[in-house]
Each structure stands twice: as structure tokens, then as C-alpha cells.
Amino acid sequence: MEKIQSTCNFCAIDCNLDFYVEDGKIVKTVPTKGYPVNDGFSCIKGLSLSKQQTTVKPNSLPKIRKSDGSWEQVSWDKGFQYVADKLKELQAKYGTESVAGISTGQLTLEEFAIFGHVMRNYLQTNVDGNTRLCMATAAVAHKQTLGYDAPGYTLKDLELSDTLIFIGSNPVVAHPILWGRVRQNQVPGHKIIVIDPRRSETAMNADYWYDLKPRTDLLLLYTVAAQLIEKDYLDKTFIREHTNNFEEFKEFLKPYTLERGVEGTGLSKYQIHELVELIHKGKRVSFWWTMGVNQGYEAVRTAQAIMNLAFMTGNVGKPGTGGNSITGQCNAMGSRLFSNTTCLFAGGDFGDEAERKRVADIIGIDDDHMAKKPTLPYNKIIEGINEGTIKGLWILCTNPRHSWTNNETFATAAKKLELFVVQDIYDTIESAEDATVYFPVVPGIKKAGTYINLERRLAPMRPVLPRGENEISDYECILGVGKALGMGKALEKWETAQDCFNLLREVSRGKPCDFSGVKWDELTNSHGRQWPYPEGREAEFSADERRLYEDGKFYTANGKANFLFEEVMDNPIPTTDKYPIVFNTGRGTVGQWHTQSRTKEVRFVEDASSKNAYLYMNTKQAEENDIKEMDRIRVYSSNGQDAAFHVKITDNVPYNQLYAPIHYIECNKLTPSNYDKYSREPNYKGGTCYFVKEDDKEVEKA
Length: 702
Ligand SMILES: Nc1nc2c(c(=O)[nH]1)N[C@H]1C(S)=C(S)[C@@H](COP(=O)(O)OP(=O)(O)OC[C@H]3O[C@@H](n4cnc5c(=O)[nH]c(N)nc54)[C@H](O)[C@@H]3O)O[C@H]1N2
Ligand SMILES: Nc1nc2c(c(=O)[nH]1)N[C@H]1C(S)=C(S)[C@@H](COP(=O)(O)OP(=O)(O)OC[C@H]3O[C@@H](n4cnc5c(=O)[nH]c(N)nc54)[C@H](O)[C@@H]3O)O[C@H]1N2
Ligand code: SF4
Ligand SMILES: [Mo]
Fold this sequence. Notes:
Blueprint: E1 2-7, E2 16-22, E3 25-31, H1 44-47, H2 52-55, E4 63-65, E5 71-73, H3 76-94, E6 99-103, H4 109-122, E7 126-129, H5 136-146, H6 157-160, E8 163-167, H7 171-174, H8 176-183, E9 191-195, H9 201-204, E10 208-210, H10 217-230, H11 236-242, E11 243-244, H12 246-252, H13 258-265, H14 269-281, E12 285-289, H15 291-294, H16 299-312, E13 322-325, H17 332-338, H18 353-363, H19 378-387, E14 392-396, H20 400-403, H21 408-416, E15 419-424, E16 437-440, E17 449-452, E18 457-461, H22 474-484, H23 497-508, H24 520-523, E19 529-530, E20 561-562, E21 581-586, H25 605-608, E22 614-618, H26 619-624, E23 632-637, E24 642-650, E25 657-661, H27 665-669, E26 687-694, H28 696-701
Parallel strand pairs: 6-7, 6-14, 8-9, 8-12, 9-10, 11-20, 12-13, 14-15, 15-16, 21-25, 22-24
Antiparallel strand pairs: 1-2, 2-3, 4-5, 4-16, 17-18, 18-19, 21-26, 22-25, 23-24, 23-26
The protein binds ligand MGD (2 copies), iron/sulfur cluster (SF4) and molybdenum atom.
């Protein structure tokens, strides 16, 4: 029996697992002992990865849609040539930016890097990623505040903090191993605090739960900041030596009175005081935020308001502290820096000519074939298709027909495309319905590459199973199209995933994410490696768990962190007499994964999880409407769409709020086309609606 260590490619924890392989089959999966992230534990998703052996069809070939709508199976070479010719044809006919891509935070570093290279550099067009739906807010907030998209913490900080504040974050469901680290916290009397309008699974396990009104986090955070100032609960040395703009922030906060905070958030004076005291009394206070913050209409400022609290109280760079963003997908952190979408490889600006030239030389392409501006954001790509300016789209490892906000807009777009390439491991995903080309690639257990987890740790994916005939990886597929496009010299240095890794290593040299000291072979069977890890200075950076900002230096021009703030906005989608209910959305259970193509890979879960869309409703609201458990309702959203759901009744969701798991396509039928103005991330949790009870027959008809 052979033992192969690899990385789980579901969530951003990037647990390592030991796969035991016999006769080309995984017979046992054991979470890697001693791996600093998950040390012998994992959740059910990781333990189930071997199910990909049966869920993914072996030896599949590409398919091209014929004019009568049926599929023609073709060889890989023919598939590559078809897509390459069509991309060129569309560009010649409709202009360079008439083709676009949607990348992902779930592939390896090397895979989205080569996709960004082919599409953004060589074809000079737009590629955004599903990271826009998820981490764009954190990325922008970090860049503006810290000078670089560099979350500073290490998972160990969860064990060392005496006051842990989770804001719009439900790790009990979404990041079970991170929650495991919280459970290992041995600090006597440590407090767990949750800020969430819903009594989430994490709120149920917390010492304090602040059930603010939806979308009022920014007001709460400013109120708390103003109170900290009023009470003089500040770390003045840290503020003076390590931050910019505090005096302006102080002035700005004057109108954020306690009364205004109480009125707007729905929390009591007592609760806000209590929260302020908890922050003040904590010696090591850490703030953790996830999608309840990132997916909003004033999300970047909210994320920054969290970091502001950490700066004011000096809770930065020390064990158990920080204003910390929790990442979602297994390689979202990698895609933020290495997908060539919103920044040059390793975080540079497209407009920085010298940096562009440096990167171009390393990756082997002429400067005039380098992307020169950030990509159009996701929503502009979809709008472009609907308006007829974009005619070709290539998506990989993402399922936007389901996951995109107000997703009927994607359905309309897909039908307008002259070329729609879907590259996935399952041809049954909703996005493939209107595809004109389908590329079937191998799943994670059959390929090699690199992941970067939420604490900046590079982790190795290594092939666990051998490949069958015709089986190719995403990397090889994109390389194939690149060659068919005639990229020639521009791909010379990109022959394998390992070659690509070495290019990116070189590009990272001297940047904050410098991982020039990380060698491909050394990463195999390792503890992973957090960036930075510069070549030549390995000894200095040898610790297994490291945090940034211990020296109080940030990546801004003067080395100080910026206080950033802006007046709270009026909610662009307020509840009204017609739409009195907030439509909250998020993760359902530990075993359900996003658009559910992969839920079938998770043992027991598919059998147990509902086939039909459901949502949660407050008990009183159900009683008032004569709704019983699993009755069906039709929900009418203020975006103009409606959909039917089964109802699960609970006291954990407040009156006049519904909570819909994202794992059903109906959920995003009802979410709004509304975005944060800086990050362009969708306001997924801020829709409004009303509902009517329906009998089953009517629902079946609809
Ligand atoms: N099992 C499972 N795990 C996953 C995933 C999965 O699909 N399934 N997906 C992964 C990915 S990509 C991501 S990004 C993460 C997401 O991880 P999380 O962000 O933790 O998960 P969500 O359920 O989207 O949202 C978190 C909470 O935000 C709350 N919320 C809604 N509105 C507000 C508000 O106005 N203010 C505040 N403070 N809170 C609000 C919701 O009630 C919810 O409890 O999970 C990762 N892990
Ligand atoms: N309403 C609402 N909507 C949301 C959210 C929310 O909280 N509320 N959350 C948003 C967030 S945070 C995220 S991250 C997105 C996720 O949205 P998506 O990225 O669209 O969701 P997934 O189901 O993870 O899609 C990944 C796809 O990759 C495929 N796949 C798996 N392995 C491989 C591989 O090795 N190669 C290839 N080529 N394909 C592979 C899977 O079959 C699947 O089709 O959803 C967003 N949508
Ligand atoms: S899904 Fe996340 S927590 Fe679960 S095993 Fe995979 S990496 Fe670990
Ligand atoms: Mo995500």
C-alpha cells in the first residue's frame, strides 16, 4: 500500500490528508498527523475525497455542440483547435475584448496562472474569477489599509486569543477545522463573541451573540469605535507609531453617538457597552470576518472598520490578535495574487511599467503582450454578454448559472454566446446546459499543483491516482488551447505545472508574498510553507506558524496602516411595505458544497440532504401564515423574480428574515444585482422579499 500526502480542495483551510492507495484505488484516507493546519483531523468533505473515484467519469473526451443542439465527441487536439480558432475568429470579428473568461479560487496556482497568461496576456482580454463573489472585498480592503493583500494571522492565533469576535462568519459550518482550533483555545476565561443577525451554529456555541439588524455592521463598528475613544480605551503608542489618519477618524466619528448606534442596529445600549468593555478588557483580542461582511453594499468600508478597531486597541501583530479575514475557497488566497485578473502576478499594478517589464521577462512574453489594465469585473462581463459586446466566454471550475447573483441574468447571457466553453469535472452542472464546448478534466486526486490557504500557507496537491487514457488536467487543457492559438515562444517556459510554479516563485521574489525559497520537491510531504519565505533567508523564516506585522510595519508608502472610513450609506435595498422581509443567504451544512455538484462526493450527505430547495423561517412568522414544517411557499424578491421553497421552521432566524442555503439554484434567482462600489462584490445577503403559501400542486405546475 502506498501513502500519498495531498491537499483537500474544498475550503480555504487546505487540510492535508494521507491517501493510502492499492491497485490504483484509494482504500483509506487519514488526515495528516503533524501537519500544522489540521494535525490528524479533517471534516467529512476531506475524508470523502476518494469518492471522486466513482463520481467523476473516467476517460472522457471534449464535446462540441452541433447545430442541431446535440454533442459531438472529439479528440483533445481537435477540441483545443476548435476553441483557439473560435476565440481568434470572434476577436477578429467583434474586437479584442469580445471574449472573456471566468476563473476560480478552487484550482491550483499554476492552473489559474496559465489561464490568466493565455487569456489576459496573450489574448489581451478580460478574465475575472469567482473570487469576486467571495474575497474581492477583503482583497481591496487589505490593499487600501495595509498596502498589500496580506492577511497577517496564523491559525495558531485562534488558540492564543482571549477574546474572539466573529463577524458575519459561521465557522462551525463553513470552516470546521478552524473552529476546532477555537475549541483548542486554552486561555483561561476566553470569550467567544458572534455578531450575526441570525443565531448561526457558531452563535449557538458562543458566549455572546449580538443579533444586530441585517446590514448594520458598519454603523455598529463606528459606534463601538466612537465609544472606545470616548472612554479612552486606546493604544495611543500603537496609533502614533504605526497608523495614519487617526485624528481624521476621530473627528469623523463624532456624529456616531451611542443613541444613533442603538437606533440603527437594534442592539441595546447595554449590549453595545458590553461589547466595548469586552474589547477593552481583552489582552489579546482577535476579530474574524467572512461573508456576512464581504458580501454587502458597503463591504470594503465594513472590513476596514473591523481592522480600525484592531489598530485603535493595538491588537495587531501580537499572538492571538488581528482584524482577520477568513478565506473561503481552497485557493482563493492564491487566486487573489496569481490569477492575473485584478493585479499582476504577485500583486503588482498593471499600470506600473517597470513591474510589468520585470514580470514579462520572467514569464517569457513581450511586454506588449502583457495585460495592461485590471480586468473588467464579473458583473461587467455578464452585462457585456447581455448587451452583445462579449460573444465568447470560457469558464473553469465554477458554476455561475447557479452561483452568480440574480442568476437569471446569467441564464440569459449564456444563450447569447457564440462560444461558451465550460471546463469542469461534471458535465451535469447547470452552467453546462448552454455550453457550446465542454472540456472534461480530471479531479484533484489526479493532479499536481499548489494551493495557498487562508493563513498564506502554500500546500502541495500531488497526484494520488494514476491517469487513464485521455485524462488531462486543467493545466494541460489550457496549455493545449494556448499552443493551438499559436502562442509559441510565450509558452516555452510553461511546459508543466512545475515549470509554472518556478516562474511564479521567481516573480514573487522581493514582493511581500516572496516564496522564492519554496521548492516544489520540498513541498511534497511537508508541513506546507507560509509566505513570505525568501530564498537565502530560510533559517529566519523556518517556524511552522508565522504571523505578519509583528514589527508594526505595513506595506504602505510610509509603513503605517491607514484608518479608512466613510459615512454609512442608506441601504440601497431597504425593506418596504411590499417587500418587508430580508432574504439572507449562506452555507447550509458542513457536507453541502456551493452549487452541489460536489456534494455528491461527500459521504452520507447526498443521501441525507434535501433534493429540493428549502429555507428557514421564524416560528412566529410560520404560525401567523399557517405554515407547517416542509410546507412550500413562493418567495417574491424585489429583484422581480420568484421561486418556491420548502420551509424549515426555527427560532434561530429572526422574524421578517428568511435564510436560504445557497446550495439550490432558486436561492440566487432571488438575490439582487447590487455590489460594493470598491470591490464589486455582490450584496448576496441583502435582498428583500415577501412570500405566499402555496399548495404543492401549484408549485409542481410552476
Ligand atoms: N460546508 C461548506 N463549507 C464552506 C463552503 C460551502 O459551500 N459549504 N464554502 C466555502 C466558502 S467559498 C466560503 S466563502 C466560506 C463562507 O463562510 P461564511 O461566511 O462563514 O458562511 P456564510 O454562511 O456565507 O455566511 C456567514 C454568516 O453571515 C451572516 N450574515 C448575513 N447577513 C449579515 C449581516 O448583515 N451582518 C452580519 N454580521 N452577518 C450577516 C449569515 O447569517 C451567516 O451566518 O465557507 C467555505 N466553507
Ligand atoms: N446567495 C449567495 N450566493 C453565493 C454565495 C453566498 O453566500 N450567497 N457565496 C459565493 C461564494 S463565497 C462563492 S466562493 C461562490 C462559489 O460558486 P461556484 O464557484 O460557482 O461554486 P462551485 O459549486 O464550488 O463550483 C465549482 C465548480 O468546479 C467544479 N470542479 C471541481 N473540481 C474541479 C477541477 O479540478 N477542475 C475543474 N475544471 N472543475 C472542477 C465543480 O464540479 C463545480 O462545478 O458562490 C457565491 N454565491
Ligand atoms: S473542507 Fe476544509 S476543513 Fe474540511 S477537510 Fe477540506 S480543507 Fe479541511
Ligand atoms: Mo467563497
